[in-house]
Amino acid sequence: MHAISSRSETSNISDNLSIEELRELIPQLQQLTDKYKHSEAIQKSLFDISELASSVNELSRLYPAIHDIIGRFMNAQNFYVAFYDQINEVVDFVYFVDQFDEVALRQIPASQLMEGFTGYILRSGNHLFLTEENREQQLKEINVQQIGSGPVDWIGVPLKRGNQVIGAMVVQSYDKSIRYIQEDLDILLFVSQHIVNTVDRVKSREMNELTIRERTKQLQNINEELQEEINERQKVESLQNALFEISELSASVDGNMADFYASLHEVIARLISAPNCYISTISADKKRLEFPYYSDEMNSQIESREVGLGLTEFVLRSGTAELINPSRVKELTAKNELDAVTAKNMLEQNNSWLGSPLVVDGEISGVIAIQSYSQDEHYSLRDLELLRFVSHHIAVALERKRSSDAIHAYNQQLTEKVKERTDELNKTNQYLQKQIEERKAIQQKLVHDAHHDALTNLPNRTMFNARLSQALANKKRYPHNNFSVVFIDLDRFKQINDSIGHHAGDSFLIEVASRIGLCIRSHDLLARLGGDEFVILLDNFDSPDDVEVISARIINSIAAPFVLDEREIFSGASIGIAYIESGYQSASEIVRDADAAMYQAKSQGRGQFVVFDLTMRKKLLEELEVESEFRNTLKIGAFEAYSHPVFDMRDSSHLYDECRIRWMHPRLGAMDRDSFWQIAEHSGLVVEMDNYMLNSAFAMLSKKLTPYAKQENYRVAVNLSIHYLTQAEAAVQLIQDIKAKQIDPKRLVFEFDENDLNRRAEFSLPAIKHLKRSGIKLVLDNFGSGLASLSYLYSYPFDFVKVDHRFVKTISRSERNLKLIQSVLAMSQHLNFKLIVSGISDKEQADLLRSIGCELGQGSYLEEPTAVSIER
Fold first, then answer.
1. What is the pLDDT of residue 14?
2. CA distances from 570 to 358, 558, 766 (A)
3. Poorest-confidence range of 209-218, 334-343, 698-707?
4. 287 has a pLDDT exceeding 90
5. Under a CB-based contact definition with an 8 Å cutoff, are residues 364 and 218 in contact?
6. How far is CA 187 from CA 153, 690, 812, in A?
7. Would you say 772 and 730 are in contact if contact means Cβ atoms under 8 Å apart?
8. Nearest residue to 698 (alpha-carbon basis) of 767, 731, 744, 733
């Protein structure tokens, strides 16, 4: 009745007021609308900040997100956040973005800043709003000095934890066209009250995760150390086993000596790399060397020879085991211990040689030697010690061993050592088992945390989907079993969170979880998917009436008042129900359908439940089908390309061809650009679509597909998404790709939609400048279709501004639209851009536009769009 009354009063007022008086009311109504939109934007930003506390795990990602949110309702191109560490007396600039100043050190001593703007906020706890007009007077009054580049306007607000000032948040402007007002200060003051809690929660979560990672790393290091100790002990045990085997071989020397030598070589090779091995003995008269065993990669055999200046003779003379590498060869040659031929061979082949004397009854009877021809494998002193030990046992074997008692005593000693080492390994294994059990306990805790919500301790999405998948498999196997998913979304949760704070909001969610738990049965599964969304898996019910009774009980329970911080809070619940049928293929499909039913409940007035039906599913499937068809069309390049030229209407000369894409859907017909670009955004295929458009433009340039392509200054325009303007690096890479394809950037024209630019305008200027400097012409497309600021025309170096075709459509009967075009045309003469009027469809429109001075135009009247054939 009130709305009808208001319309009636409005109607009476409009009847009583003249047109001129109504026009005077329009700015007031526009101001009220703008004020409402601004307030709504602030509320959304505060909700986004609160969402950051639960969605961001690292502070390095939090501050850019806060910067992005603040940038939605004011120009925050120059922005920083600093925290004051009173214990260490330093100011930590945790986030700093500035056009002119750079922070070389993240932490700066507080003494260097306390006399400046930021220092004043940190020591006084007051905010500071400086403008170009009042800066000098305010600085004198508060006794503050200017540090760094001087801004035009500067706003700084304190960040407080209770009554304690812990930091400051600052925005500043160096551009006289960008000024701040009292409303900007009020917004920053209001936002600062919510940021500290968000930072504290993210910092706490980050510290918890760091502690878990450090503990996990410690356990990994302990396990690695234990593994290394085990490996070392295994090597020791392997060595002991090898020595025992050598001892056994020595005891069986009565057998075939050739087999003995081969077995001995095999054992040595397990201890030391020994691809080449030989045993040499000296004759009784000490004049000749024999080689009873010789295994070599390069020589299959060797003849006995007289004693000379070889490596074997050097060991016989020294009486000790020797390690001879190329460096030692030069030393021995200089001392005349080696002959020139042996030295040359060693150096050319880069040999590494080990030799040890064989001592029998105190006399040297021969030498055992191993050598390597590999460039990458040289022997070490440890290898030398091993060979020295092995040579002793070989000598014992050659003298037929000593008495069996000595051998028995040696074996007994070896057995005891093995037993001692085995006991040590058992103790080590027991310690390792204890560590493994501790780690299992930690892993169980991690598994629990990974499957449960940290706030309510309810199962999370991962665990719920697993249980739901089991229920679906059960339904397919036993169709008579009944299952359903109940999707619950809380009403007015954002308002509750904003009004009572995030801490109380968490308490509210915990209480909601408790109430829902009281409404369901013990074997039902209640989970929290995130935010204010809860979901229940119901099973073993007799009929759908049971599910509806439980849903109604939950709605009534949530509708009861909540008492939080001694205040009475009211909420509600909207519920979607999906019954599990064997036709479902995955758990995600069931949750999707329950979610769709929940949104249907919200649209019908909240506080109720809706059961999913086939019409909802049909709509979802249609949307998915269209998206799939779009993906396939993009993959095979089956879009229709056509050229839409832009002309100079004074002499009908051609300015450039605009490359456009059209999708002819087999059922829905021709899909306009806005429709399939929206599908691309929802499908995450914006970048792929941009590349498709660029390749189409490249083809038009290289293959000359239109009648105007033979012109000397022929250009092709293409409409791109905002992707290439979000960061300068993407624009630089795009320019490099263009040049790599041997395309002159000066022959390209890039058009960017005004509505897209609104989303990230504050971050796009550097990228636009990169494109501009490369020679690419830039167009602000569909100007006037959104809420773009006129500052775009002043701040951004667009070569052309294209007026939205909807203004042209009505200029013959709308003087206001004609004057708007005339105003933009007047600005173009002062701001160094050219105006393009699109959508010219008849002669009357063209004549009107020419009459007010419009020169550049595009539309079916000037020339119909022409299809072009682009081979992929």
1. 47
2. 97, 8, 48
3. 209-218
4. no
5. no
6. 16, 37, 44
7. no
8. 744
Beta-carbon contacts of 365 under 8 Å, excluding residues fewer than 6 positions away, are 281, 282, 358, 359, 395, 398
Rounded Cα gap, residues 456 and 528, in angstroms: 8
* pLDDT in the model for residue 663: 84
Look at residue 747 in the predicted model and tell me its pLDDT: 93
Predicted local confidence at residue 525, as pLDDT: 93
Asked, for residue 583, whether it belongs to a domain, the answer is yes
pLDDT digits (tens, 9 = 90+) for 300-321: 788 888 888 888 888 888 888 8
Residue 17 sits in the same domain as residue 60: no
pLDDT reading at 16 higher than 70: no
Helix and strand numbers (H, E) in the chain are: 27, 29
Q: Could you give the dihedral angle defined by the CA atoms of residues 116, 121, 124 and 126, in that order, rounded to the nearest 10 degrees?
A: 130
| Stated length of the chain | 872
Phi and psi of 837, rounded to 5°?
-105, 120
Range of the domain at 389: 254-400
Q: Which residues pair with 504 in a beta bridge?
A: none
Q: Which residues are catalytic?
A: 532
Full 3-state SS string of 12-25: HHHHHCCHHHHHHH
Residue type, 389: F
- Cβ atoms of 78 and 173 within 8 Å: the answer is yes
Angstrom distance (rounded) from CA 526 to CA 547: 14
Sheet holding 107-109, edge to edge: 107-109, 90-97, 78-85, 164-173, 153-161, 128-130
Domain identity same for 696 and 804: yes
Of 580, 612, 644, the last residue of a domain is 612
Nearest Cα residue to 396 out of 410, 417, 377: 410
Rama region for 753: left / alpha / beta (φ>0; ψ in -120 to 50; rest): beta
**25 and 55 together in one domain:** no
**Strand arrangement of the beta sheet that strand 276-282 belongs to:** 305-306, 288-295, 276-282, 363-372, 352-360, 322-324
Q: What is the CATH classification number for the domain harbouring 376? A: 3.30.450.40
Distance between CA atoms of 288 and 305, rounded to whole angstroms? Answer: 6
DSSP state of 321: -
Q: Where are the alpha helices (DSSP H) in 571-613?
A: 587-603
Q: Does residue 816 lie in a domain region? A: yes
Beta bridge partners of 169: 81, 157
Helices of type H across 774-814: 791-795, 805-809
Number of domains within the chain: 5
Query: Do both 637 and 555 map to the same domain?
Result: no
Residue 577 DSSP label: E
256-264's contacts with Cβ under 8 Å and 24+ in sequence apart are 257/292, 258/293, 260/397, 261/292, 261/293, 262/293, 262/295, 264/394
Q: Is 772:795 a contact under the CB 8 Å cutoff?
A: no
Q: What is the pLDDT of residues 41-60, one digit of tens each?
A: 667 766 777 677 666 667 77
Q: Which residue has the higher pLDDT, 742 or 145?
A: 742
Q: Mean pLDDT across the chain, nearest whole number?
A: 83
The whole-angstrom separation of Cα 309 and Cα 317 is 10
E strands, 410-540, in order: 483-491, 525-530, 533-539
pLDDT digits (tens, 9 = 90+) for 176-189: 888 898 888 888 88
Q: Each residue of 569-591: pLDDT tens digit?
A: 888 899 999 999 888 899 998 99
For residues 822 and 835, what is the distance between their CA atoms, to the nearest angstrom? 10
